TrEMBL record:
Pfam families: DUF915. It comes from Lactococcus lactis subsp. cremoris (strain MG1363). This is Alpha/beta hydrolase. Residues 46-70 are annotated as: Disordered. Residues 50-59 have a biased composition (Polar residues). InterPro entries: AB_hydrolase_fold (IPR029058), DUF915_hydro-like (IPR010315). It comes from the Bacteria. Gene3D superfamilies: alpha/beta hydrolase (3.40.50.1820).
C-alpha cells in the first residue's frame, strides 16, 4: 500500500508539474499575443498620424499662427501710384514728392516696387513703411515698358499679394498715370470679388490710356464719348467694356486729363477721347465718377509735376488742399 501511495504522489506531482508548465506556456503565449496586438495597433496609429492627423495638426497650427500673426500685423491703407509705359517709377515719384507733406494725414512716401515683366514679375522692393505711416504712398513700375493692361494687372497682383502677406490692408487706393491707368482698371476687373485682394476705395486716372490713344472720329464729339463711349473700340477698350460691371460701384473715381492742345483735344500724347472713354461705363455702373479737363502748358510726360494735378489728387485722396 505504501508503495502505491508513493507512486500516486509522484504521478500527481508530475501531473501538477505538467499543468503548471502548460499554464506558464499559455500565459507566455497570451502575453506575447497581447503585446503583438498592442504593438501592431500602436504602429497603425502612428502611421495614421503621419499620413493624416499630423498634417491636419500642422495645418491647424499654421492657421492659428497665421491668425495670430495677422492680428499683430501693422494696419495700413496704401495708395499705389502706377507708372506709365516707360516702366520706370520716376514719373510717379515726381507726383508723390509734390504731394508731400500732407497736413493732418499720416501719409508718407514708403516703398518703390518694380515687378520685372521679363522675369516672371520678379519684385524689387526699396524703402520701408514706418509704424507711423498709416497711409503709405507706394510707387509701382514694370521695369520694361508696356501698355498692356493684362501685364500691368499681373504685376500689380503680385505686389498687392506681397503687401497682404506683411500687412493688414482693409482697402487700397490706386493712381494710374498714362498706361498705368490701363493697368489699374484691368487690375480692378481681374481681382473683383477675390477675397485674396483688398477692395479698391478710390481711383485716380491721370491722363490715363484706355483705347490705345484713339482720336475722335469724323463727326464724333467729346460729348458723344462722355455719353456713349467712343465709335472706334480697340481690343484694349473692349476688355474694359465687356468686364467693367465686375468692378464695385462703391469705387470713387476721378478722371484727370490735360488741356495741352485744345484744337487737337489732346494732352500731347493721349487724346481726350481716350482718357474719358471709360466715363460712361462707370457712370452707368453707379460709380461716383468725375471727369476733369485741367488747364496746363505742360505736355503729357510732365503731367505728374503739374501743381494743378497735385491739388486735385491731394484733395480727392486725402481731403486736404
Amino acid at each position: 500500500m505504501k508503495w502505491m501511495k508513493k507512486r500516486q504522489l509522484r504521478r500527481n506531482k508530475n501531473n501538477f508539474r505538467r499543468l503548471s508548465l502548460t499554464f506558464i506556456a499559455l500565459v507566455i503565449v497570451l502575453s506575447g499575443t497581447i503585446f503583438f496586438l498592442s504593438w501592431s495597433k500602436a504602429q497603425h496609429s502612428h502611421a495614421k498620424s503621419d499620413n493624416g492627423t499630423s498634417l491636419s495638426t500642422t495645418a491647424d497650427v499654421k492657421e492659428s499662427t497665421s491668425s495670430t500673426s495677422n492680428s499683430n500685423k501693422q494696419v495700413i491703407y496704401p495708395t499705389i501710384y502706377i507708372a506709365g509705359s516707360s516702366g520706370s517709377v520716376t514719373p510717379v515719384d515726381w507726383l508723390v514728392q509734390r504731394l508731400l507733406p500732407i497736413e493732418n494725414v499720416p501719409a508718407h512716401k514708403s516703398l518703390a516696387i518694380t515687378a520685372d515683366v521679363n522675369k516672371d514679375n520678379l519684385l524689387k522692393i526699396e524703402g520701408q513703411i514706418s509704424q507711423d505711416n498709416q497711409y503709405p504712398m507706394i510707387e509701382f513700375g514694370t521695369v520694361k515698358g508696356t501698355d498692356s493692361g493684362s501685364i500691368y494687372s499681373a504685376g500689380l497682383q503680385k505686389v498687392v499679394s506681397y503687401l497682404m502677406q506683411n500687412y493688414q490692408i482693409p482697402w487700397i487706393n490706386l493712381v494710374g498715370y498714362s498706361s498705368g491707368g490701363t493697368g489699374a482698371v484691368y487690375y480692378m476687373i481681374d481681382t473683383a470679388n477675390n477675397p485674396n485682394f483688398p477692395p479698391v476705395n478710390k481711383y485716380v486716372s491721370l491722363d490715363g490710356e484706355y483705347n490705345k490713344a484713339t482720336n475722335l472720329q469724323y463727326g464724333e464729339s467729346l460729348t458723344n464719348v462722355l455719353q456713349n463711349g467712343p465709335l472706334i473700340k480697340t481690343q484694349m477698350y473692349q476688355y474694359i467694356e465687356e468686364n467693367y460691371e465686375r468692378i464695385s460701384p462703391k469705387v470713387q473715381m476721378l478722371l484727370l486729363e490735360g488741356d495741352f492742345n485744345s484744337a487737337k483735344q489732346t494732352d500731347s500724347a493721349i487724346p481726350w477721347a481716350d482718357s474719358f472713354s471709360i466715363y460712361h461705363l462707370f457712370k452707368n455702373n453707379g460709380n461716383e465718377i468725375t471727369s476733369t479737363l485741367y488747364p496746363t502748358k505742360a505736355s503729357h510726360s510732365q503731367a505728374p509735376k503739374n501743381p494743378t494735378v497735385v491739388k486735385y489728387v491731394k484733395n480727392f485722396l486725402y481731403g486736404t488742399p
